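DOMAIN: structural biology
WANTED: fold as tokens
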Amino acid sequence: MPVVPLKELLDRALADRYGVPAFNIVNDLSIEAVVAAAVAENSPVILQTSVKTVRMYGRAQLFDIVHTLIRDSTVPVTLHLDHCPDRAVISDCLAGGWNSVLFDAHELDVAENLRQTTEVVAEARARGAHVEGEIEGIQGVEDDLGSDEAAVLQTLEVAVDFIQRTGVDCFAPAIGNAHGQYASAPVLDAQRVSDLVAATGVPMALHGGTGLSAEQFQDLISRGCAKVNISTALKQVYMQSSLEFLRGAEEKGKWDPPSLFTHQRAAVMAMAQEHMRVFGSSGRAW
């Protein structure tokens, strides 16, 4: 199945109140493992690339890797550029085949953010792509972007106006969530998700998912968080499974890279499948 538009994935998820998992992949192995998990669960999936990963590989090479690994997939896949404040990178990725971007302009004042996001939406539409918007920074640093300072919240009216005037296809609200590991159990403003969806009909994106309970995920998804980001959990399981395997290899004095890759793949795949089941996306592919 070819890459499917973000809006198609999220409109279906919002209507039926399940969450499409959006995994921040880091290399070819993580891409293949996540897609294999989606096929095993018959789940739609979003592959997210950070600006850091795009720059590490180079846009053209990264797209070729993704395209090769999803070409024969039997489930709907979207390729999304996560948290990008750089208009040049956004334009490059849209021109290079990404069909969804998050223009992260929360550091600008709302008026300038609105103006530039409207331009990004127009640019994306011209290429058949979609846009996620944001006006409040999600607390925490991820892939060298962000801040540990608490987000400055806007009023519901300001957020609704931004969504409606820009025409974004998805919106990432700050609701007490945070990137990375939570130091303590987060107190989430779940009602804000319900209010935004009721006022706009636009699906919400949940950031800072790693560390939330299954009950928190399911409550927020039922309110309209149709896109659920998972980044830290993938990085942790990828590196922790590597460490576990390498310690064993050192003890045995046996160094076999393909066995390491198999171990990493199994760990990432299991993590992805677990999230798909919690989010209710298993069995939702078409």
